[in-house]
Amino acid sequence: MVPLNYYLVLSAVIFAIGVTGVIIRRNIIVILMSIELMLNAVNLTFIAFSRSLGSMDGQVIVFFVMTVAAAEAVVGLAIIISVFRHRQTLDPREMQLLKW
Amino acid sequence: MILFLILAGLSIVFSLLVVFQRNVIYSAMALVATLFLIAVLFLTLEAAMVGILQILVYAGAIMVLFLFVIMLLNPGLLEGRSIAWWILGSLAAVLLLFALVPFLSDSGWLLPGQAPAGGSFGSPESLAQSLFTDFVLPFEIASVLLLVAIIGAVVLAKREV
Amino acid sequence: MIVDIGIIAAKALMVLSMVLNLAGVLGWIERKASALIQNRIGANRASIFGFAGLGLVNTLIADPIKFLTKEDFIPPKGDRLLHTLAPCLALFPALVAFAVIPFGDILVLADRTINLQVANLNVGILYIFSMASLSVYGIVIGAWASNNKFSLLGGVRGSAQMISYEIAMGLSVMGILMIYGTLELQEIARAQGTLLRDWLPPWISFLNPLIGWLPAWGIFFQPAAFLLFFTAAVAETKRIPFDLPEAESEIVAGYHVEYSGGKFLMFFAGEFAEIVTVAGLITTLFFGGWQVPFLMRDGFHFPWGGTLFLPQLVVALLQVGAFTLKVLFFCWLQILLRWSLPRFRYDQVMRLGWKMLLPLALLNVMVTAVLIVAWQSAPLKP
After folding, report:
1. Do A2 and B4 touch (CB under 8 A)?
2. With contact defined as beta carbons under 8 Å apart, do C350 and C164 qualify?
3. Which DSSP string corresponds to C284-301?
4. Which chain A residue shows the shortest CA-CA distance from B99?
5. pLDDT (mean) for C160-169
6. A46 reaches B (C-beta below 8 A)
7. Is residue B144 a contact partner of residue B152, using CB atoms and an 8 Å limit?
8. Residue A31 and residue B136: Cα distance in Å, rounded?
9. Contacts of C137 in chain B (CB under 8 A)
């Protein structure tokens, strides 16, 4: 039987790796993927607690988190495509200013 | 227990690959592997429905979308590295870990793994029971949200004629 | 404990070997059947001591040897790791998807009851759909790793087609799930063991002498869903008439143009394993799975009242045999379909998936829901 702390620590580690990805990478798609990684770490925490407390609420919340993450990934990628058509680059430093 | 250690180790390895790989497609495939492993972790935590949904939705659809966009935009050059940023970022992550891990490893935090009653925990019936009685309003709003996201994505990514 | 794991391992091994063997045999059946349909002889040149065995030697012995001994070629500018990974990604979901399909009821061996299904997940059919959505990766990665415009075009078309028809596939089985009230495939197969007269409501029971003796198979409840699901499944596995992604005459074998030898064999075997999985799924959902009409766990119970008691082992063998026959029939049907119909154009494929199958599947779900409420029994278990 795996103690709850192990799942929480694993989720914290994956979350920290996601944060690293958002800070250090200079490719906007990889930044989006690191955000998905962070969302998944949080999902893992929710499911671990749901199992430990015996309540289904955690799993319902994870269901909604997945839905919202899907919607956000779709819109984010559409924005990236549309920005790429103008700037021809995926470097977030080039996308800092609204007009160059 | 051994299963958990293997799954945890592999998922950490693949997450590191997502962040530190220079080729974007390798990062995306590593993320698919991470999502698959997290789904298996869900299955070991008796969340069968959510685990399968993770494979179906996240690893099966969202990541395919990511791959499509990567192939469409075709990033030819691999990005350059900046050592200062990498050290700063890794330092931030390590500090975050130092803040979280001792707090979470506290064994007095919560009763670990008390088994919930019955084999129907995490089954589709119980998830649907919660969704359609207690959480029906967020459910309907989520469907409106998805509709808005679809329309928004189509409008944003359309080529101006 | 060890015996339990041993039983599961034995079942998994049996199912895996059955799927792989059937995939190989289907390759031979496809060549010989196509020859018969097209009024020619087919492959019969390879022979051992003059014994050509109806093309068996050619397809099952000479072809694999040829595939496996070819040079492993990776395109010069293509991605080495991804080029090798893609066939594995295409084959893996096709093989493991069969794990939740039940091939028999129960087998009683020395006071141990074995459920004849490799894994009894409580999400049942969703597992197969998740493996179907994972199989898109083999196409996408294979297309990208080949560094070839035709390959990329075929791959993008193929993956777009697959994700479009996944939706139609999922929605068309919703009617069946509503009627039998469960996602588990073994429960759906077991629920089809009763007769229709136990399911029909009282105000329609005047039809009982006519149709009441039919077994409660999914096809009698949902004929439209069967057609929709069959079409969507054939499109999902990229068989003709939906095989534009890999067409030989249009885009030079599409996404597997740069693959030769063992890797091509893996793509090929994956496609045939998917045929077997689709056939297994259709029999379980719509045609009673392993059910033989009127056969219960202890023998035959005929609707006119007669019974014929049989030992449990014979019953189990009859059920497994019935399942195999039905799966073989649907594999044959898909092969027949392949050699009879011309190929769809890509925009026709997309229009069919989104504008025809999806609304029809939704309509089917709504009509089924209305009928279930009208019959005032949900789930419709007798």
Report:
1. yes
2. yes
3. HHHS-TTPPTTEETTEEE
4. A12
5. 91
6. no
7. no
8. 33
9. 29, 32, 64, 67
Using one digit for the tens of pLDDT, what is the confidence trace for A15-71? 999 998 898 888 889 999 999 999 999 999 999 988 888 888 899 999 999 999 999
Two tokens at B8?
């945890």
Q: Is A63's Cβ below 8 Å from some Cβ in B?
A: yes
Classify residue C7: in a domain, yes or no. Answer: no
The question of ipTM being above 0.95 is answered as no
For B80-93, give the DSSP string.
PP-HHHHHHHHHHH
**Residues A9, B115: Cα–Cα separation, whole Å:** 20
| Cα angle: B36, vertex C267, B51; to 5 degrees | 15
CB C288 within 8 A of CB C320: no
Q: Which 3 state secondary structure label does DSSP give B123?
A: coil
Omega within 30 of 0 (cis) for the link into C241: yes
Length of chain A equals: 100
> Cβ distance C68 to C261 under 8 Å?
yes
For chain B, the C-alpha Rg in angstroms (whole number) is 20
CA dist C276 → C161, C225, C305 (Å): 20, 20, 37
Distance between CA atoms of B30 and C354, rounded to whole angstroms? 31
Residue C141 lies in a domain: yes
The fold adopted by the segment(s) B1-75 is: Four Helix Bundle (Hemerythrin (Met), subunit A) (1.20.120)
In angstroms, the CA A69 to CA A74 distance is 8
**A37/B34 CB distance under 8 A:** yes
Listed residue (B137, B154, B64) closest to C141, CA to CA: B64
Residues in chain B: 161
What 3-state class would DSSP assign to B24? Answer: helix
B127-141, C123-137, C159-173, C192-206: segment of lowest average pLDDT? C192-206
Considering only CB atoms, which chain C residues are within 8 Å of B17?
A: none
What is d(CA A41, CA A18) in angstroms, rounded to the nearest whole number?
Answer: 9
Count of domains for chain C? 1
Domains in chain A, please, with CATH? 4-95 (1.10.287.3510)
CB atoms near residue C294 (< 10 Å): 17
- Give the domain ranges of chain B: 1-75, 123-161
Q: Contact, C270 vs C24, CB < 8 A? A: no
Q: Which residues of C touch B56 (CB under 8 A)?
A: 126, 129-130, 133
Helices within chain B (DSSP H only) = 2-20, 24-44, 48-53, 63-73, 83-105, 124-133, 136-157
